[in-house]
User: Fold Amidotransferase from Streptomyces sindenensis.
Amino acid sequence: MTGLSTLLIVVGLFLAGGVYSFAKQGMPKGVIVLLSIGSVMCLVAGILRIQGLWD
Assistant:
């Protein structure tokens, strides 16, 4: 299942880049917060899957 872990981490990093881009453009704070939460959730899920703590 390392493929799914890698995919989750890549999506999390992609969303983190979106957060940075949206913050520079001055997008609404709600959009930035939602993208931040999604990014963190994807990154944490990918890391937990790699560590074997989440099946």
Q: What stands out?
A: The chain has a mean pLDDT of 89. The chain has one domain: 2-51.
